[in-house]
UniProtKB/TrEMBL annotation:
Family: Belongs to the ribose 5-phosphate isomerase family.
Leader peptide range in chain numbering: none
Cross-referenced Pfam families: Rib_5-P_isom_A
Pathway(s) where this gene product acts: Carbohydrate degradation; pentose phosphate pathway; D-ribose 5-phosphate from D-ribulose 5-phosphate (non-oxidative stage): step 1/1
Name of the protein described by the UniProt record: Ribose-5-phosphate isomerase A
SUPFAM superfamilies in alphabetical order: D-ribose-5-phosphate isomerase (RpiA), lid domain (SSF75445), NagB/RpiA/CoA transferase-like (SSF100950)
EC number(s) on file: 5.3.1.6
InterPro entries given in the database record: NagB/RpiA_transferase-like, Ribose-5P_isomerase, Ribose5P_isomerase_typA_subgr, Ribose5P_isomerase_type_A
Catalyses which reaction(s): aldehydo-D-ribose 5-phosphate = D-ribulose 5-phosphate
One GO molecular-function entry: ribose-5-phosphate isomerase activity
Biological process (GO), any one: pentose-phosphate shunt, non-oxidative branch
Described function: Catalyzes the reversible conversion of ribose-5-phosphate to ribulose 5-phosphate.
Gene name of this polypeptide: rpiA
Length: 230
């Protein structure tokens, strides 16, 4: 089974948790896209749900798949968010934001009763940090913000190169919120909760890709089958 088939399997397993009438957060990325497509098939067959997309890309996918959409201004909570991740550790802490949607993803996950992470099992790691940590920043004053981020890294015992993310066209990648992303190659993050707190305290940081205590379960698809971790 190839990687894409594993992602679809994880998405299908998460779909088993969805019930009629639920309000759903719809994640971003190639794995979450499988979930949106499978959900669209169930909606076409009569399932009644409503979704809040975590990116403009997911909004387009959901619309194409016939999934009705709403916003967090119109409803007051979500039952389940189903989203992918770039890394998942045994405490279900995550690195997210490889697709650049971390800000909306975190807002939506935080408004949800449950967050189910779906992934192929290559995303399962003993310690977060091999995947570059995305930090969403305001372009204004970026030099000062970068220095503050470096200071936070040093205080939390990590260090590594930082680079402003570029898109495929070679230009600076701009998020759905109009911000930039700095990717930090940290290698190993021993205390992700402390680092998350330190980054959140920096004025030019809009959000970062450490999702601490937000995921309630992870559905991991691998060669040996599906594992659900809670
Ligand atoms: C987007 C994300 C994605 O969930 C993450 O990058 C995983 O993507 P994929 O399912 O394509 O591997 O955080 O911001």
């Amino acid at each position: 089974m190839n990687m894409d088939q594993l992602k679809r399997q994880a998405a299908a397993r998460a779909l088993e948790e969805v019930r009629d009438g639920m309000q759903l957060g719809l994640g971003t990325g190639s794995t979450a896209k499988h979930f949106v497509e499978l959900l669209g098939e169930r909606v076409a067959a009569g399932l009644k749900v409503i979704g809040v997309p975590t990116s403009e890309a997911t909004r387009l996918d959901a619309t194409r798949c016939g999934v009705p959409l709403t916003t967090l201004d119109e409803i007051d909570h979500l039952d389940i968010t189903v989203d992918g991740a770039d890394e998942i550790d045994p405490a279900l802490n995550l690195i997210k934001g490889g697709g650049g949607a971390l800000l909306r993803e975190k807002i939506v996950a935080a408004a949800s009763d449950r967050m189910i992470v779906i992934a192929d099992d290559s995303k399962w790691v003993p310690t977060l940090g091999k995947f570059p940590l995305p930090v969403e920043v305001i372009p204004f004053g970026l030099g000062a913000t970068r220095r503050a981020i470096e200071k936070a890294f040093a205080e939390c015992g990590v260090s590594g190169q930082m680079a402003v993310r570029k898109g495929k066209d070679g230009h600076v990648f701009v998020t759905d919120g109009g911000h930039w992303i700095v990717d930090a190659q940290l290698g190993r993050i021993e205390d992700p909760a402390s680092l998350a707190k330190a980054l959140s305290a920096i004025p030019g940081v809009v959000e970062h890709g450490l999702f601490i205590g937000l995921a309630s379960s992870a559905v991991l698809a691998g060669g040996e089958g599906i594992r659900v971790i809670e």
